Amino acid sequence: MEAFLISTGIVALAEMGDKTQLLSLILAARFRKPWPIVLGILVATLVNHALAGAVGSWVTTFLGPDVLRWVLGLSFIAMAIWMLIPDKLDDSDTPSSTGSLGVFGTTVVAFFLAEMGDKTQIATVALAAQYKAWFAVVAGTTLGMMLANAPVVWFGDKLVKKVPIRVVHTVSAAIFAALGVVALIGWGQ
What we know:
By secondary structure, the protein is mostly helical. The chain has helices at residues 2-15, 19-31, 34-62, 65-83, 102-115, 119-131, 134-162, 165-185. The chain has one domain.
């Protein structure tokens, strides 16, 4: 349960102001069809985070506990620093039309590609390696993504303007830094 709850909270916070959250806002504004967009985000996130969680679980099979502790600790600290750098969405990340894919297919493809190498994908890898609980981590990170992105699709601009993104990023960075320190000193090992 701990892996699920921590994964949910970390990813929900990390996603605030992230480029995939901005993409959710753009998709909602452009297509004005919330259900296919939210379902597309869910499918893209499940596939992306399932793969990322598998990588995190796989890493634990060939790294010794001491090396893994250092890799995880430094990864979480790097994520803390990365959280303090605001994301920007460039034109290549936003679809101009749905083409033959429709709103759902366009959302799946755009969201999956935008999530590649993103903070929340990297966090999923690290969390899966840390907790060795693939299902709980993937379920948690997916729920965190949905908690952060679905309201943006439905409430868009109004919601984003009320959230103090800088504060959310600072809190997220502090949580990642704390997880990094805990991993480095080996608490709970």
